[in-house]
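Hi support team,

I'm opening this ticket because the web form for multi-chain structure prediction keeps timing out on my end. I have pasted the exact lines I submitted so you can reproduce it. The total is 441 residues across two entries, so I didn't expect it to be a heavy job. Is there a limit I'm missing, or should I split the entries? Thanks in advance, R.K.
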Amino acid sequence: MSGIVLYGLDVSAPVRSCQLTLRALELDYEFQEVDLLAGDHRKEEFLQKNPQHTIPLLDDNGTLIWDSHAIVCYLVDKYANSDELYPKDLVRRAQVNQRLYFDASALFMALRDICAPYFDNDVTEISQEKADNVRDGYGHLETFLGDNPYLNGDAPTVGDFCCAATASSLPAFIELDAEKYPKVNAWLERLQELPYYEEANGVGARKYVDMLKDKLTLL
Amino acid sequence: MGKLKLYGLEPSPPFRAVKLTLAALGVPYEFVFVDTPGQENLSEEFLKKNPQHTVPVLEDNGHIIWDSHAICAYLVSKFGKSDSLYPKDLLQRARVDQRLHFETGVVFANGLRSITRPLFAAKLTKFPKERYEAIIEIYDFLETFLKDNDYVAGSQLTIADFSLISTISSLEAFVKVDPTKYTKVTAWIKRLEQLPYYEEANAKGTRAFFSMIEKANFAFSS
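Hello R.K., no limit was hit. The queue was backed up. Here is the completed structure from your submission:
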């Protein structure tokens, strides 16, 4: 037993990026559900572990880490037999890091900016600006892919796991137009071929999209 | 071996985060000004370097790296005499990484850019309460992170401090840090202002950023 516990919900994109990484590393782990709607993340017990009260949270044999991007990098550096998922070469690592920070800022914030007001305050309208932020996200991914099958070249990295978890959730709000973003579409289909992808991300992403798809309207 | 080139401009917070890191490392570099208000970052020449058309961009011997956090981590790993600014210990590094991702998302994207982007583009001057609350949430989190530590990721100065101070000092253009409510944040800001390179690497550029905001004549909606 690895002694690893992952706290979260399967509908959460950042939780799914950790699941993809854990599965890629063939690490077993215990999943602990944190019911956000019931406010589990704001209870004293959880706040002691993570004062930012977000999911995912990793407990690696007593070591507590949060933020999906910090978690996935830690897991690869600690447990991987080789470094393809998060290269040690400084230039290549910087390029993967750029994708991770892109996910954390542009992609995930575009998602959060729409779903947080909905969950917190029943805001069901998506402003033009917020819709454009999502489309900008898709557009940048299209550019980053260039002539490569994955975001950082010929092989998947944690950059792909994090961006794909978010990109596969954004259609809850703005459809991923396969004609406008053919490379993004092909990249997501390519990732679906990973044997663990369906369980680690596919199921949760579909649940998220189905949950929200018809609840919000574009202005 | 070619010199490092750093592309950007003084008012930009992430540009200043890299300046702070370069100054702390004592690494020389050439500054290349990019006129983002004039949309130079959208020129074909710049897009070839960085298709995401953001600043800062680092050029090191032909290698192009962008995103300030990726740049700072790269610089310490490559040029640092020790790893203190970006620890190699996995848990310490994960803490710094978490603070850096907090900065890029919650602080920079949701706190600052959500205001400056429409402000500088469409020249809007009034913003909803949502944006004010986003900034207060940032200050609240930072106060919590600094509860038991002198620096944001622990007892030592790291690139997470550089990344966060560059944006926090800029956010004060919109909401001042209340010194009675945020005693830890206030002490941390004062601590960083003592760094010998702080004036040149961050204070000067923050003032330039403030000038840009003052010209826009800005107010929060109640």
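A quick check on our side: The mean pLDDT of chain A is 97. Let us know if the file doesn't open in your viewer.
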